[in-house]
Amino acid sequence: MDAIVAEPRPAAVTEPRPKLGLRAMVIEDDPDLAEVIADYLQRSGFDVEISGDGAAAVAAAHRLPPDVVVLDLGLPSLDGVEVCRQLRTFSDAYVVMVTARADEVDTLVGLSVGADDYLTKPFSPRELIARIEAMLRRPRAGTVNASGMPLPGERRIDELVIDPQGREVSLAGTPIALTRTEFDLLDVLSRRPGMVFSRDQLLSELWGPGWVGDAHVVDVHIASLRRKLGDTAAERRYIRTIRGIGYRMGDGRSQR
């Protein structure tokens, strides 16, 4: 099996950790790889379910909703992109997409339908667990931010309304369905609307300072967020690209 980077099992997962009370679903049609991933997740405290078929996995997620999904791109019956698209109609689970294809288009397509992160085979199981744990450390509704202060209240930017406490977004009175990562990204940008964030800063805010991977994952989520907000890179009404630096919130007015 060449999808996993050969490495000794780290001491950190030699003994199982206490249960987290979280469910992980591994959707992978290679049974050996699925077992390795599931083993690492179980030793990290997750309850794990394995599915080797896309349609069956969607049905299983309906019956018992997961908190985290590790999703292979190439699956029988339904591919990973379609599985992710269907999951996003009823689940806000974190989704890490795994692909054996080097073609960047596959990765971008996967993220555009709601995946939170991706890994390309072969990959390190330790890296997978680190990515998942970083996502789970993000603040959620009803929590406080890093400064210890309560999260700010409703924010209004022209026709865009962001409610951090309720984790809801609307545009001109119409609710906008965002993935967890898309909402977290919009939350960070709108919390400090005058600040320009570099990709590395956004990665640190959302994935944690120890995150290792392709920084262009930020660009993919920005593109998806713009599309859902009816924005474009040319108009930059709500999210502005600052060339050579990064991104900041707009004021709702077109920059075309």
Describe the structure.
The protein is built from eight helices and twelve strands. With 256 residues, it is of the alpha/beta class. Helix 2 (54-63) runs parallel beside helix 3. The longest helix has 13 residues, at 31-43. The chain is globular. The termini are far apart. It holds the Pfam family Trans_reg_C. The modification 4-aspartylphosphate is found at residue 72. Residues 23-136 form the Response regulatory domain.
Short description:
The protein is an alpha/beta fold and 256 residues long. The chain is 33% helix and 19% strand. Strands 2-1-3-4-5 form a five-stranded parallel sheet, sandwiched between helices. It has a four-stranded antiparallel sheet with strand order 6-7-8-9, with helices on one face. A three-stranded antiparallel sheet has the order 10-12-11.
Q: Structural class given helices, strands, pairing? A: alpha/beta
What is the helical fraction, as a range of percent? 25-40%
**What string gives the helices and strands in order?**
EHEHEHEHEHEEEEHEHHEE
- Rg (C-alpha, Å): 19 Å
CA(first)-CA(last) distance: 51 Å
**Gross morphology:** globular
Major sheet description = 5 strands, parallel
User: Whole-number average pLDDT?
Assistant: 83
- The tally of helices reads 8
User: What is the number of beta strands?
Assistant: 12
Properties at a glance:
256 residues; alpha/beta; 8 helices; Response regulator transcription factor; Sig_transdc_resp-reg_C-effctor
